[in-house]
Design a protein that fits this description.
The chain is of the alpha+beta class. It has helices spanning 6-25, 50-68, 85-98, 103-117, 125-134, 139-147, 152-164, 186-197; strands at 39-45, 73-79, 172-175, 178-181. The chain is built from 8 helices and 4 strands; from the N terminus they run H-E-H-E-H-H-H-H-H-E-E-H. Helix 2 (50-68) runs antiparallel to helix 4 and helix 3 packs antiparallel against helix 4 (103-117).
Length: 203
């Protein structure tokens, strides 16, 4: 199996070594203040990114089951329009769906629609509105949101923060001081999250 790059593995190995030493000596390194809030996981993604779709469909559900559903972590999706105008429109559409409480459902459906044949037609305004209607959204309110480009500024802000976070490849998974770029096996993400959780104060 291909090994993760040094950018991924070195911080994880160092953190694991630190955790082992702390357990052995009975000392706990002071973590960043959390105020008892769940660990924050950030995922940068784009609907025209095949590896992003795989992370979303194969890894993310298990992480939500293990960490979000148990209150240990929260996942913040940062949608990008990095590929072209189609992915920008898709990101805005998902955020419009989020206004009606169906961000994840819309993301699932749009990733699935594009993965079927990678047809850019799924990102047309008509197709995006039709998808919203299929999910039971108020398609009138959705269309108004999408056509007004009300979410464009939010997508552009996500792209700016991706640069600030030094993201160079998608998907990008950020937790604690660790960044995992590209798609890796589920265990890579779990081990990283557990390493960060080990330094958090009890809630």
């Amino acid at each position: 199996m291909k090994r993760p790059p040094v950018k991924v593995m070195l911080p994880i190995l160092l953190a694991m070594l630190a955790a082992i030493l702390l357990v052995a000596t009975g000392h706990i390194a002071p973590p960043p203040p959390s105020n008892g809030s769940p660990l924050k996981i950030i995922i940068y993604t784009d609907f025209q990114c095949g590896a992003c779709e795989k992370l979303h469909s194969e890894v993310e559900p298990k992480l939500r089951e293990l960490y979000v559903d148990t209150g240990k972590a929260q996942i913040e999706m940062r949608l990008l329009g990095a590929m072209d105008s189609d992915s920008m429109r898709g990101a805005q559409a998902a955020l419009c769906a989020g206004d009606q409480g169906k961000l994840l459902e819309y993301m699932d459906a749009l990733f699935d629609a594009y993965a079927e044949d990678e047809d850019a037609a799924v990102f047309s305004v008509e197709a995006l509105i039709s998808l919203a209607a299929e999910l039971g959204l108020d398609d009138g309110a959705f269309a108004t949101c999408l056509n007004s480009e009300a979410k464009r500024a939010e997508v552009e802000e996500n792209m700016d923060t991706a640069q600030t976070d030094d993201v160079s490849k998608l998907p990008a998974f950020l937790v604690g001081n660790f960044t995992i770029e590209g798609r890796w096996p589920l265990d890579t993400y779990i081990q990283t999250i557990e390493t960060v959780l080990a330094t958090q104060p009890p809630q």
